[in-house]
Specification:
- The protein has eight helices and seven strands.
- With 258 residues, the protein is of the alpha/beta class.
- The protein has a single domain, classed as NAD(P)-binding Rossmann-like Domain (Rossmann fold).
- Strands 3-2-1-4-5-6-7 form a seven-stranded parallel β-sheet, sandwiched between helices.
- The model has no long low-confidence stretch (mean pLDDT 97).
- The protein binds nicotinamide-adenine-dinucleotide.
- The site of nicotinamide-adenine-dinucleotide (NAD) has 29 residues, from α1, α4 and α6.
Length: 258
Amino acid sequence: MSGPFERLSLTGKVVLVTGGTGGIGSATARLCAARGAKVAIADLDEAACESLAADIRVAGGEAIAIRVDVTDEDEVSTMVENAVATFGGLHAAFNNAGINAGNALLDSMALTQWQRSLAVNLTGVFLCMKHEIAHMSAHGGGAIVNTSSAAGAVGMAWSADYVSAKHGVVGATRAAAVEASGKGIRVNAILPGAVETRMFTDALGTNPDLRRMTEAGHPIGRIGEPHEVAETAAFLLSDAASFITGACIMVDGGFTAQ
Ligand SMILES: NC(=O)c1ccc[n+]([C@@H]2O[C@H](COP(=O)([O-])OP(=O)(O)OC[C@H]3O[C@@H](n4cnc5c(N)ncnc54)[C@H](O)[C@@H]3O)[C@@H](O)[C@H]2O)c1
């Protein structure tokens, strides 16, 4: 990448992606690798991580697989150590692992659903940022992007756990950006609307009306594609976003503009 697009290049950077084998994570890992990054793909499913890393290598990129459960601090710490040990540093991280722990009204939601959702969607982001910032602040800075959701900006029924966790990601992102700016670390969040991934199709089930309603709920008139979210994440991870920190960027087809 050269000329006017040079600052979008990730050449020479080591990028860690959690939830790296999912729809948004894998699209971002592939895009970062195509833009020159060495990519550490971290997810629960080790075989899927290995398979994606192999694909990226076949395409000429550099990638490794790391199995991680982002709710486990020891595993998160080891994930960061592995990426650094393999590639010699960590310059950028996309904290993107997330789940839909179920759908229930708040007054009948099981405590276990609430706790599981907060553990993965919010505590997971906290643990990743904690260990990434510790490394980056001692090694010249870096860039972090956290995946929130349109549900991190507005309320939605049947998902108080997810809405709360994703609002929490926005708060944690802003707090971390303020704290880490002096250490040369930028921290931003992206807030996707509905995107064609396993999480989304699982939540929809087979109800065609629900799909049509979701499409109509986005002023752009359709569901987003993973690569459209990846483009924003890769931009924020790159030097092209050098004056952006603490930003929470909607990638939602206008969903929250209404
Ligand atoms: N798809 C959407 O409509 C949508 C909308 C807004 C936000 N998001 C967010 O985007 C992110 C990516 O989701 P996606 O849509 O690509 O779904 P996805 O299900 O395809 O990917 C999620 C990935 O996270 C991984 N994961 C789950 N729990 C984990 C854990 N404890 N440790 C490590 N990895 C774990 C899964 O294995 C999976 O690969 C999530 O944070 C999600 O909340 C998705």
